[in-house]
Write a structure and sequence with these properties.
The chain has 502 residues and is of the alpha+beta class. The protein is built from 13 helices and 19 strands. The strands form 5 sheets. Strands 11, 12, 13, 14, 15, 16 and 17 form a 7-stranded mixed sheet that branches. The longest helix has 19 residues.
Length: 502
């Protein structure tokens, strides 16, 4: 394989970085990200590029998901109970205001939920609810009732994904000026940096960090050098080859799973033999260790072990290029247009070594007789392929996707990816739809069994994707900060949890 697994940083650029290092003002931190956020829209904040900046900083949620414990804790909501099979009652914290001075109350919370469900907005967070219809209603200032058209037994967990925003924010359009109840306000946002400033009116404890500046650099080695030189205080995303300093670099299981989504209804990808060949053609062990480290875990499905619904009986696809070639030849003999160009849709700076992994897979798919090319896009263009409606006339594509499920339940993954009308789904299987809808309405052991059945069908029968790895993340933390990563780090960096050393 001729793929270049790492890129160097020029001596000239390194000298600029070190020359630019300066002592940060008291209480201020600089965080260097791998890419510029596509926007700052709260209803798209389940995406890591957006969530790392605004989640738990500008905006907050009614409940707080605790992935390490597998529990849900109160936040803007103090308590909740299920009134009946289709209704939840949420009791809200009183005395909280949004950063623009508006009152946080049941009316504002209901409007945030209605905004999330607004079909005029493309909201990634809405995908967590599948096709369930929500009807929120304020009973009084601190009591919110949410009715659903089908049972939603994990409502408290789901509410931990809904960013609550000011009622004064645009209802029918996306924004780059989010307003929430969090400890930080948006001071400025340009193509060069984003600055958050501590809010003096925050309802909770006063954080130590007074101001945070976010910048972005595509190269992992550059991000590492910026923290090492003092030009930045932290980077949440390092390639394994750059995580070399045991005193500043930390590995963590980040609950992300990577895959290549197959456009399964467009020839030649509509032939299951071609989809199987895509999986069999990859040297998973060699590529995984070279690009993502020896601790990376092969994936057989799109949730990590420990998530309710994960099926331990599904085995990852083996590396069998000879069988892959045979399947392609058989499909060609039967008239499948295997010579049609298949385009890989990648995202610049998606995660460390993401581009290198695409280059490696492209080479291996070409070796089994497929015509494959690679198109790397910025986040704002890449997202057009993420959600329905997908671009018309796009031809057969393999779409690079990384999915974070740190909630402990497969209901946050399987419906959006595999239901016929799922926001990310490229398949339409009525039998699978039945299983998934039953799973969404079930609880306990029955819910687990149904999701396991669904994942087995996706893997063995439909072959809807190319599951890659359960990812290990690497961060570099400068000497000024007292902070360690956790399961949420890939999608959220709460500035209030950062302590500053004397």
């Amino acid at each position: 394989m001729t793929t270049k697994y790492s890129r160097g940083v020029s001596a000239a650029l390194m000298s600029i970085l070190f020359a630019g290092a300066a002592h940060a003002a008291e209480g201020e931190v600089k965080i260097v990200l791998p890419e510029q956020p596509a926007n700052l829209e709260p209803c798209r904040s389940i995406r890591s590029d957006i969530g790392r900046v605004i989640n738990s900083n500008i905006t907050e949620t009614l409940t707080n998901i605790e992935p390490e414990k597998g529990t849900v804790a109160p936040w803007l909501a103090e308590s909740w109970e299920q009134v009946n099979e289709l209704t939840w009652r949420i009791h809200l914290k009183s005395g909280v205001k949004f950063q623009d001075g508006a009152d946080f109350n049941a009316e504002a919370a209901a409007k945030s939920i209605n905004r999330l469900m607004n079909p005029k907005l493309t909201c990634d967070s809405r995908s967590k609810f599948g096709d369930v219809k929500l009807t929120p209603k304020a009973i009084d200032a601190t009591t919110l009732e949410i009715a659903t058209d089908t049972p939603l037994p994990i409502m408290p967990t789901l509410l931990g994904t809904v960013q609550i925003v000011s009622p004064n924010m645009p209802f029918d359009g996306e924004t780059n000026a989010p307003v929430g109840t969090g400890p930080y306000t948006l001071e400025s946002a340009t193509n060069e940096q984003i600055v958050l400033a501590r809010s003096d009116s925050y309802w909770g404890a006063k954080p130590e960090v007074a101001k945070a500046t976010y910048v972005w650099r595509g190269e992992s080695a550059i991000r590492a050098a910026m923290v090492e030189s003092g030009e930045a205080d932290m980077t949440p995303s390092l390639a394994v080859q750059d995580a070399t300093n045991t005193s500043t670099d930390f590995a963590y299981l980040n609950s992300e799973t990577t895959r290549m989504r197959i456009d399964a209804e467009i020839p030649p990808l509509n032939d299951v033999r071609v989809r199987k060949a895509l999986n069999l053609a990859i040297d998973w062990d060699g590529m995984g260790e070279a690009l993502f480290g020896k601790d990376v875990l092969r994936a057989s499905q799109m949730v990590v072990p420990g998530v309710l619904g994960h099926n331990p009986d599904i085995k990852p696809w083996p590396y069998d290029p000879d069988q892959a070639k045979k399947l392609i030849e058989e499909a060609k003999e039967d008239g499948v247009p295997v010579d049609t160009e298949i385009v890989i849709i990648g995202r610049n700076g998606f995660f460390p070594n993401s581009a290198e992994s695409l280059e490696a897979m492209m080479a291996m798919w070409q070796e089994i007789g497929l015509k494959v090319s690679l198109r790397q896009l910025e986040a704002a263009d890449w997202v057009r392929y993420l959600d329905k409606p997908f671009p018309q006339g796009r031809g057969p594509t393999l779409f690079q996707q990384q999915h974070d499920n740190n909630t402990g339940d497969a209901g946050f993954t399987a419906p959006v990816m595999f239901l016929s009308d799922g926001q990310y789904s490229t398949i339409a299987d009525p039998a699978l739809d039945v299983v998934l809808k039953k799973a969404m309405a079930a609880t306990g052991g029955e819910r687990e069994k149904l999701f396991q059945e669904a994942f087995l069908k996706v893997h063995d029968e439909i072959v809807a994707d190319v599951p890659m790895y359960h990812m290990i993340g690497y961060v570099r933390v400068g000497n000024r900060l007292d902070w360690k990563p956790d399961l949420k780090t890939n999608s959220e960096i709460a500035l209030s949890q950062i302590k500053l050393k004397d």
